[in-house]
UniProtKB/TrEMBL annotation:
Gene3D superfamilies given in the database record: lambda repressor-like DNA-binding domains
Signal peptide positions on this chain: none
HTH cro/C1-type domain segment(s): 5-66
InterPro entries: Cro/C1-type_HTH (IPR001387), Lambda_DNA-bd_dom_sf (IPR010982)
One Pfam assignment: HTH_26
Protein name listed in UniProt: HTH cro/C1-type domain-containing protein
Length: 77
């Protein structure tokens, strides 16, 4: 599963979704879905904008962990 660290990164900087949307021009809905880890896809220009804004690499925002279970999925048979 892919883990998105946007909420942690924003929390460390005490930023709200509205702050990032205003500063970057990104859609609030897009940021909200990333923040709550409900996004099913991410456009490359969004990643580019977030990496520039947070001065980070894509790997700082997203992490692949094959052992994580996606939210809402039940692992019991």
């Amino acid at each position: 599963m892919i883990k998105c660290h946007l909420s942690r990164m924003m929390g460390e900087r005490r930023l709200k979704i509205s702050d990032v949307a205003r500063d970057t021009g990104l859609n609030r809905g897009t940021l909200t879905r990333l923040y709550h880890e409900t996004a099913e896809r991410v456009e490359l220009d969004v990643l580019d904008t977030l990496c520039a804004y947070f001065d980070c690499q894509v790997s700082d925002i997203f992490e692949f962990n094959p052992n994580l279970v996606p939210k809402g999925e039940n692992t019991s048979p």
